[in-house]
């Protein structure tokens, strides 16, 4: 689906009042420029030609100073409006990019380098500033002021008007040719910047790994290469800018020289015009070309900014394209589901009534109805038949490594959208629930939960999604088994932890993640079994906390340990992307040879369930 209008058009449409204000200010500025030239010419005429006394010129000079002050204020006002437009546009674009990243699908989120994505809302959006703060005000001035000056010049001396009319087009023609090249160079620059940002951030995040494997020096060379490529792209734009400035100055100086020569011939040789008229025209001509030159410089900056805006637009278009395809599929699914009856015997569901369905009762019943999912064409594919998960059950998902366990977990969580089939929640398609409301009732704890730079208390409070008291945070920490650890810290819960949980062990990160869940008290808890790789004591502490947390929730675990499977209410066995069978531990041992073999291997110490 094509975007209805470009990103620039959308931003300009939302700033019509500012554009109207720019038009009024530019028109007033044009009048001030002409008035200043006329008053200055009159003052020079009286002082040097008519030999008038200074006392007789006080009023004229006062008016001249007032007009000059008004011109300065109008120029300042134009700049302020441009800055306001730039600030508003950058805020809107940055919000749109962050929203698109927030609502992007899981495959889209995982695709590409993090540094490259970060450079879009930061560097690319910042570079768009020039388009609104410089380009638009100068273009508005160029659309009004030169025409006003040209009209006044024609009324004073037609020959000069024709010279200006003939030479003026050379500036925009050259400007367009240079601008097109600048836009292409700018896009190359931001492609290099995205690559450089991605390489640099990847290197920082994996610095320990690079050192361990002796690859730090090689990665340093890669960063240097990427940095030099970005430098070359930037210098290419500067080269174009200097060339542009030189050519504009040459054209302007040549044009003013031709006009000055023609005026001198008319004034001194043919004596066909007065000094006042010649001087007034000579004052207006540089103003005319100055506006065109400013427009040329602004056009270069604008085309550079357009390259950056294009990168922002591409990111939004990609996300919108994914959302449109998903929404179209969900709409078709919803229309098909609107006349269906849920597995729990619910009455027919009207789509319009369930667009913002409320999650009640909680924990909910969940049903997978012939769900299929594929990350990309000719890639891993998951298929699941008809399976029901009852409220409050402990569900274990097991299978060999790469069998699709985590993918199935993501489908149940709503992090991935099925290509076909439906995930039902309380008899209503999951796609019809408000996403924010749904995730308020879900907690997902992985083997490597992310810890943000901040204090323990701040990291725990993230789980609440609301303002919580200190007592609630302390209780959540206690429920998660963090009491002993916190007591050993000099600043307790106010102890600072580094980004990514630097300074914390694996078990401490897991307990912090569990504290978030205790604070949230979700109805659905998803685990990519977090106890793998932990020592026995830490594992027992976590198991007690998990058991307590699961008393009022449905718990779905990607299982790696035999005892987790044995205590599950329902086990989903995955093999090569297929949901082969489901049931209790003893049932699957009897009827599913692959499952029995897997259990036997672990009992003999041959490894986990992967």
From TrEMBL:
Which range is the signal sequence, renumbered to this chain? Answer: none
Molecular-function GO term, any one: ABC-type transporter activity
Q: Which residues are in the ABC transmembrane type-1 domain?
A: 20-304
Q: Where are the transmembrane segments?
A: 53-74, 139-156, 162-180, 240-261
Q: Which Gene3D superfamilies match?
A: ABC transporter type 1, transmembrane domain, P-loop containing nucleotide triphosphate hydrolases
- Whether Transport counts among this entry's keywords is yes
| All residue ranges annotated as the ABC transporter domain in the record | 366-601
Keywords linked to the UniProt accession: ATP-binding, Cell membrane, Hydrolase, Membrane, Nucleotide-binding, Protease, Thiol protease, Transmembrane, Transmembrane helix, Transport
Tell me the segments the record calls region Disordered. Answer: 319-346
- One GO process term, biological-process aspect: cysteine transport
- An example Gene Ontology CC term for this record: plasma membrane
Q: Which PROSITE patterns match?
A: ABC_TM1F (PS50929), ABC_TRANSPORTER_1 (PS00211), ABC_TRANSPORTER_2 (PS50893)
Family annotation (InterPro entries):
AAA+_ATPase, ABC1_TM_dom, ABC1_TM_sf, ABC_transporter-like_ATP-bd, ABC_transporter-like_CS, ABC_transptr_CydD, P-loop_NTPase, Type_1_exporter
| Topology term for the membrane | Multi-pass membrane protein
Q: Where in the cell is it found?
A: Cell membrane
Which PANTHER family did the record assign?
A: ATP-BINDING CASSETTE SUB-FAMILY B, COMPONENT LINKED WITH THE ASSEMBLY OF CYTOCHROME' TRANSPORT TRANSMEMBRANE ATP-BINDING PROTEIN ABC TRANSPORTER CYDD-RELATED
Q: What protein am I looking at?
A: Thiol reductant ABC exporter subunit CydD
Species whose genome carries this gene: Paenibacillus agilis
Q: Which gene encodes it?
A: cydD
């Amino acid at each position: 689906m094509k975007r209805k209008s470009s990103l620039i058009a959308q931003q300009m449409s939302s700033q019509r009042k500012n554009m109207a204000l720019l038009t009024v200010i530019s028109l007033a500025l044009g009048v001030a420029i002409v008035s200043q030239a006329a008053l200055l010419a009159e003052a020079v005429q009286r002082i040097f030609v008519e030999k008038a006394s200074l006392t007789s010129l006080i009023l004229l000079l006062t008016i001249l100073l007032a007009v000059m002050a008004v011109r300065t204020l109008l120029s300042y006002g134009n700049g302020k409006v441009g800055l306001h437009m730039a600030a508003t546009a950058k805020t809107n674009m940055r919000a749109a990019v962050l929203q698109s990243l927030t609502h992007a699908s899981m495959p889209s989120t995982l695709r590409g380098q993090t540094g490259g994505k970060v450079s879009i809302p930061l560097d690319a959006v910042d570079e768009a500033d020039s388009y609104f703060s410089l380009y638009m005000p100068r273009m508005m001035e160029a659309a009004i002021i030169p025409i006003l000056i040209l009209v006044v010049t024609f009324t004073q001396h037609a020959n000069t008007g024709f010279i200006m009319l003939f030479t003026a087009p050379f500036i925009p023609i050259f400007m367009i040719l240079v601008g097109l090249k600048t836009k292409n160079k700018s896009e190359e620059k931001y492609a290099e910047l995205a690559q450089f940002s991605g390489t640099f951030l990847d290197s920082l995040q994996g610095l320990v790994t690079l050192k361990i494997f002796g690859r730090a020096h090689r990665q340093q060379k890669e960063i240097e290469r990427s940095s030099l490529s970005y430098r070359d792209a930037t210098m290419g734009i500067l080269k174009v800018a200097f060339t542009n400035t030189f050519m504009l100055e040459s054209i302007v100086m040549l044009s003013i020289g031709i006009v000055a020569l023609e005026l001198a011939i008319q004034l001194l040789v043919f004596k066909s015009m007065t000094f006042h008229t010649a001087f007034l025209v000579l004052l207006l001509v540089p103003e005319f070309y100055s506006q065109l030159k400013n427009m040329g410089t602004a056009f270069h900056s604008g085309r550079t900014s357009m390259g950056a805006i294009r990168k922002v637009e591409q990111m939004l278009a990609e996300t919108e394209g994914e959302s449109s395809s998903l929404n179209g599929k969900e709409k078709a699914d919803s229309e098909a589901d609107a006349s269906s009856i849920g597995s729990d015997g619910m009455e027919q569901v009207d789509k319009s009534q369930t667009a913002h369905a409320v999650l009640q009762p909680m924990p909910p019943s969940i049903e997978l109805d012939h769900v299929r999912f594929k990350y990309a064409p000719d890639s891993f594919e998951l298929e699941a038949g008809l399976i029901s998960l009852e409220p409050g059950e402990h569900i274990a998902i097991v299978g060999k490594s790469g069998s699709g366990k985590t993918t199935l977990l993501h489908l149940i969580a709503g992090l991935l959208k099925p290509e076909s089939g439906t995930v039902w929640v309380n008899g209503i398609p999951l796609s019809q629930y408000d996403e924010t409301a749904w995730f308020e009732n879900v907690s997902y704890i992985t083997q490597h939960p992310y810890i943000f730079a901040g204090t323990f208390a701040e990291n725990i409070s993230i789980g609440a999604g609301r303002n919580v008291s200190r007592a609630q945070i302390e209780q959540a920490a206690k429920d998660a088994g963090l009491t002993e650890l916190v007591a050993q810290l000099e600043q307790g819960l106010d102890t600072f932890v580094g980004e990514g949980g630097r300074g914390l062990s694996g078990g401490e990160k897991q307990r912090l993640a569990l504290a978030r869940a205790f604070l949230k008290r979700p109805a659905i808890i998803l685990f990519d079994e977090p106890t793998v790789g932990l020592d026995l004591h830490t594992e027992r502490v976590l198991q007690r906390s998990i058991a307590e947390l699961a008393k009022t929730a449905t718990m779905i675990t990607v299982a790696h340990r035999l005892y987790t499977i044995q205590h599950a209410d329902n086990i989903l066995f995955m093999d090569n992307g297929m949901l082969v069978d489901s049931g209790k531990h003893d049932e699957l041992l009897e009827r599913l040879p692959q499952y029995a073999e897997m259990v036997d291997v672990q009992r003999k110490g041959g490894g986990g369930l992967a």
